[in-house]
Design a protein that fits this description.
There is one protein chain. This protein is of the alpha/beta class and about 260 residues long. It has 2 domains: about 1-200, 3 Solenoid (UDP N-Acetylglucosamine Acyltransferase, domain 1), CATH 2.160.10; about 205-255, no CATH class. It contains 7 helices and 15 strands. The protein has helices at about 1-20, 30-35, 35-55, 55-70, 180-190, 205-230, 245-255, and strands at about 75, 80, 85, 95, 100, 105, 110-115, 125, 130-135, 140, 145, 150, 155, 165-170, 175. The strands form 3 sheets. The protein has a 6-stranded mixed beta sheet. Strands 1-4-7-10-13 form a 5-stranded parallel beta sheet. A hairpin with a 4-residue loop joins strand 14 and strand 15 (about 175). Helix 1 packs antiparallel against helix 3 (about 35-55) and helix 3 (about 35-55) runs antiparallel to helix 4. The radius of gyration is 25 Å and the shape is elongated.
């Protein structure tokens, strides 16, 4: 038990230190230790997790119940948390029993690491090291989120996420997958992605529309080639005039007006 206490003390010092790296509002150790509910939730979880591992299941659950009432953060004592975990703001965070969170991860308020099955066994997510989960995001089921991945705010993740990827949307989809060199450059340039979103993150809707326009252009070119081939074969196709895009926009605005 003494070794467990020494281990917990070392983790507590690391937990406070990482706050200054990720929260510019943190001014001194006293402020962090006394006013950050995310820190309190992580500290008490380390105690309840130690009790859980030693077979004091009811006491561990009761302690986590009290902490949920005090901080608004619910962490099952069976969940495994790595080093330097930072839960910013924290209200509404839920972490299930079989969840595993790697080192240097950051979770914002409203995050859920939940299960999708009533069956016993591994049913909650596993987060690699350096993962950032934005506010309101839900990661559900025994999925794995790779190292240094970013989960955008309010996303719902139901599938595995590759390392270094950024996921947005409902259901979540990968909008970029950085190489090792790119991840190093991004980390050096941005330092830390608050809420799991980078300032220059591409718009997934605009990206999809651009891909559709490129696809339509290729189809138009293919139709022209087929028309020329049929004309050479003596088959004349009726000409169809396509309305200009400006006219389509004008018609849509008249309908909406």
């Amino acid at each position: 038990m003494i070794n467990c206490i020494i281990h917990l003390w070392g983790r507590m010092r690391e937990d406070v230190g990482c706050v200054f790296e990720r929260d510019p509002a943190a001014r001194n150790w006293l402020e962090v230790v006394t006013t950050y509910p995310g820190i309190h939730a992580v500290w008490f979880h380390r105690v309840s997790h130690c009790l859980w591992n030693h077979g004091f299941f009811w006491l561990a659950r009761f302690l986590s119940h009290l902490v949920r009432w005090l901080t608004g953060i619910e962490i099952h004592p069976g969940a495994q948390l790595g080093r330097r975990i930072f839960i910013d703001h924290g209200l509404g965070v839920v972490i299930g029993e079989t969840a595993i969170i790697g080192d240097d991860c950051t979770l914002y308020h409203g995050v859920t690491l939940g299960g999708t099955s009533w069956q016993k066994g591994k049913r909650h997510p596993t987060l690699g090291s350096g993962v950032v989960v934005g506010a309101g995001a839900k990661i559900l089921g025994p999925v794995t989120v790779g190292d240094n991945a970013r989960i955008g705010s309010n996303s719902v993740v139901l599938k595995n996420v590759p390392a270094g990827a950024t996921v947005v949307g409902i259901p979540g989809h990968v909008i970029n997958k950085a190489s090792a060199a790119q991840k190093a450059a991004i980390a050096k340039h941005l330092g830390f992605d608050a809420y799991g979103l980078a300032p220059d993150m591409p718009d997934p809707v605009a990206y999809a529309i651009n891909r559709m326009l490129e696809h339509i252009q290729v189809l138009d070119q293919q139709v022209e080639v087929l028309g020329d081939a049929l004309k050479q074969a003596g088959i004349e196709l009726p000409k169809v005039s396509l309305p200009p895009l400006e006219a389509c926009e004008l018609r849509d605005s008249e309908k909406n007006g």
